[in-house]
Amino acid sequence: MKALLDPDNGRVGLDRVVELAHCHLGLDVVFLVELTPAGQVYRAVAGDISSFEMALDDGSPRDATYCRLLVAGQIPNLIHDAAHDERVSELPVTRETRIGSFIGVPVRLSDGTSYGALCGLSHAPDNTLDERDVRFMSMLGELIVHDLDEQRTQERLQADIMRLVETEGVDVAYQPIIDLHDGRCIGIEALARFPHPFGAPDVTLIAAQTVGLRLELERLAIRQAWKVIPSLGPEQFLALNVSPDALVELARRANLRTDLPLGQLVVEITEHSAVESYAALHNELAPLRRQGLRIAVDDAGAGYASLRHVLELQPDFIKVDRSLIHGIADDHARRVAVSAFLSLALDLGSIVVAEGVERQADLSTVRDLGLHAVQGYLLGRPRTSQGALSRWIGTPRQGNGHLPLGTSNGHTRPRQAAATPVTRPKLPAVPS
Question: Of 3.65.10.10, 3.30.450.40, 3.60.20.30, 1.20.1290.10, which CATH number belongs to 2-152?
Answer without folding.
Answer: 3.30.450.40
